[in-house]
């Protein structure tokens, strides 16, 4: 399903993802239809491919965003509290906010302050009310520590790959909550892990192979450019 779903508009892109069987039900589809990817990257926004957004970051491919929303759909329900680690362009944070609705909250945390600023600008193009009403909160910080102030989270999405699952993130997962996180294995391959907390116990499952930029320090990601 990778790459096959490109369109010439946001509606066409999302419709092609649906035709290719990416969505199992209406909610992730509705969210992606309601958020114009063109607000979050100027470069070929309706191609089913990742795009560079500066600072060694990318906006993930639409089929990966769709997959993340699908895995999290039962946890991104009305009124839920969610965390998007490595929020980058802000696109997925807004899609998640669509799903939790006006009584829910999504915290986006990103360590490149330039991207926090850019994503806030992107969101304000068509969804400024989400920021005004506190449904979306964009934080400048190290997402490996999560964001304890607003924990626990019913859903956590991590948009960059770590060597292991940061303990702060499993700690901040609510009981009954789910985290989707790309993890780099010893052989260098990355897997998308589904982590559920059930009665306080952690259940891990590998759901697919993926390729993400690393979850790292701000200096490792960008300092050599200054
Ligand atoms: N999900 C976003 C961005 C994906 S790229 C989108 O689709 O637009 C991964 C992002 O994670 C980058 O923006 C990068 O700057 C950020 N990142 C990497 N390590 C991080 C860390 N330790 N804390 C916070 N953000 C981090």
UniProtKB/TrEMBL annotation:
Belongs to the methyltransferase superfamily. L-isoaspartyl/D-aspartyl protein methyltransferase family. The keyword Cytoplasm applies. It holds the Pfam family PCMT. It catalyses: [protein]-L-isoaspartate + S-adenosyl-L-methionine = [protein]-L-isoaspartate alpha-methyl ester + S-adenosyl-L-homocysteine. The keyword Zinc does not apply. One of its GO terms (cellular component) is cytosol. It comes from Caenorhabditis briggsae. PANTHER family: PROTEIN-L-ISOASPARTATE O-METHYLTRANSFERASE (PTHR11579), PROTEIN-L-ISOASPARTATE(D-ASPARTATE) O-METHYLTRANSFERASE (PTHR11579:SF0). This is Protein-L-isoaspartate O-methyltransferase. Its EC number is 2.1.1.77. It comes from the Eukaryota. Keywords: Cytoplasm, Methyltransferase, S-adenosyl-L-methionine, Transferase. Monomer. GO terms for biological process: methylation; response to stress. It is found in: Cytoplasm, Cytosol. Initiates the repair of damaged proteins by catalyzing methyl esterification of L-isoaspartyl and D-aspartyl residues produced by spontaneous isomerization and racemization of L-aspartyl and L-asparaginyl residues in aging peptides and proteins. InterPro entries: PCMT, SAM-dependent_MTases_sf. NCBIfam families: pimt. Gene3D superfamilies: Vaccinia Virus protein VP39 (3.40.50.150).
């Amino acid at each position: 399903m990778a790459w096959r779903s490109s369109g010439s508009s946001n509606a066409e892109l999302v419709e092609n993802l649906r035709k290719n069987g990416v969505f199992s039900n209406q909610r992730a589809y509705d969210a992606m239809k309601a958020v114009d990817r063109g607000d979050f990257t100027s470069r070929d926004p309706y191609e089913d491919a990742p795009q560079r957004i500066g600072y060694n970051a990318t906006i993930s491919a639409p089929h990966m965003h769709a997959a993340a929303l699908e895995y999290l759909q039962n946890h991104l329900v009305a009124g839920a509290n969610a965390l998007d680690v490595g929020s980058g362009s802000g696109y997925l944070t807004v899609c998640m906010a669509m799903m939790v609705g006006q009584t829910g909250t999504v915290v986006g945390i990103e360590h490149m302050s330039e991207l926090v600023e850019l994503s806030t600008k992107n969101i304000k193009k068509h969804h400024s009310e989400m920021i005004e009403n506190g449904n979306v909160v964009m934080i400048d910080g190290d997402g490996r520590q999560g964001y304890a102030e607003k924990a626990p989270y019913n859903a956590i999405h991590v948009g960059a790959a770590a060597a292991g699952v940061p303990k702060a993130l499993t700690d901040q997962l609510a009981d009954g909550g789910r985290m989707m996180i790309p993890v780099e294995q010893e052989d260098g391959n990355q897997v998308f892990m589904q982590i559920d907390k059930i009665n306080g116990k952690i259940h891990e499952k590998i759901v697919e192979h993926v390729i993400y930029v690393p979850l790292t320090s701000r200096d490792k990601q960008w300092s050599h450019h200054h």
